[in-house]
Structure formats: C-alpha cells, structure tokens
Design brief:
36% of the residues lie in helices and 25% in strands. It is built from six helices and nine strands, in the order E-H-E-E-H-H-E-E-E-E-H-H-E-E-H.
Length: 207
C-alpha cells in the first residue's frame, strides 16, 4: 500500500497490512482501529466486500470515514462516508484499489488504478508508479507533505515500510527511498530467518 497526505505521518495512521490476509486503508478523518477491524474480518474468512460491509455496518461514525480493502485473492472494495472531506472518490481494479479525499479532481483514484495495472516489476515500484500517477492527475488540492509505502509478503512482518513524514516533495523522496531499499530488502528477510547466511554490509564497527 502507498499513501500521501498534506498532514504528517500519514502512513503510521492509514496503512494496515497482514501477511497472508490482505490490506486495508483507513483514512479521511482517520480511525486507525478500523483498518485492524477490516483485517480481522478478512482473517475470519470474509472476502473484501463482506469485510468492508461488516465493519461499516458496526461503525457508529462511518459517515466520517473512508476505507479501502484488498483481500489475499486480489478482490477489493472501497467506502466513502457522506462526510468525507472535499472532492472524494474511489476506484477498484484487478488486484488494486485506490481512494482519496480533498482531491483536486475525482479522477485521481482511477488514474492511480490504471497506472498500477499498466505497470510491471516489483510491487514497491508499481505502487510508486501509481502514487506518481495520482500526483500527475492533480493529487490533493493542497500541498502534499508526507507519504509512505509498505508491503507484506510471506513472513509475518512488513518486508518494506518506508515513510517521509514532512517534506516539500515527499513522493519524490519516497521514490528515492524505494530505490535505495529494494536491493537490500530480501537480505533483511534472510537476516530474520537465517542470520548465519545473511550478508554483511560492511558498516563501521562490523568486523
């Protein structure tokens, strides 16, 4: 999942992922608890649509919330409450979903989904393509100050978790972090699973 916002630390609040289960985004006037609730529903056997519907139906303040979900089979769904801020929209594609609020135009999420589906390569790189496409389509109506990207795979932790929490060009800075991180990503998984075979990076003090 990738996300950007005019407010700081957006990824810390909005990205919710669970390996082998799926992903959920909780945004707008954000309640981070809802992301975990959607993942719990997926883990219990619900598909993306059913999981989202069950969480929204039990949320007393759903009108203020905007949610996205994608399950382990690639099915997706999105919800925007009636009090979602500014211009807002959501779009689902094949194994992808995007949503936004306070947008420059309602076409931003669709542009992101289309760019993602037309892309190839590492998931992190494809997410950056989508994030840049959203920016090119107008992005948020005001300046974007923070961005983040996280990915889960076959291990129970995030194999990628990168954040830019206050910057004049957070999406560009995030892209630089992705480029720096990807060549090292799998080595850090190896460090967790099999430290004896993990490579050394030759940092000062490592002898």
């Amino acid at each position: 999942m990738a996300v950007s916002s005019s407010s700081p630390a957006v990824a810390a609040r909005c990205i919710h992922l669970r390996a082998g289960v799926g992903g959920a985004g909780s945004q707008n006037i954000t309640d981070p608890r809802l992301g975990g609730a959607v993942l719990d529903a997926l883990a219990s056997g619900s598909d993306a649509v059913a999981a989202l519907e069950s969480v929204v139906s039990e949320c007393a303040e759903a009108d203020y919330r905007q949610l996205t979900v994608i399950d382990k089979s690639g099915r997706s769904a999105h919800f925007s409450g009636s009090r979602t801020l500014g211009v807002h929209a959501g779009s689902s594609g094949e194994s992808s979903v995007a949503a936004g609020n306070l947008l420059a135009s309602a076409g931003v999420p669709e542009a992101m989904v289309r760019a993602f589906e037309d892309s190839s390569g590492e998931l992190e790189s494809r997410l950056m393509v989508a994030l840049r496409a959203g920016l090119a389509a107008g992005g948020e109506a005001g300046p974007v100050r923070s961005a983040g990207l996280a990915v889960v795979d076959e291990v129970p932790w995030r194999v990628t978790d990168l954040r830019v929490d206050w910057h004049d060009d957070p999406i560009g800075s995030l892209a630089d972090l992705v480029e720096l991180w990807l060549p090292q990503r799998d080595d850090y998984v190896t460090r967790g699973l099999n430290p004896a075979s993990a490579p050394s990076y030759g940092v000062p003090g490592d002898r």
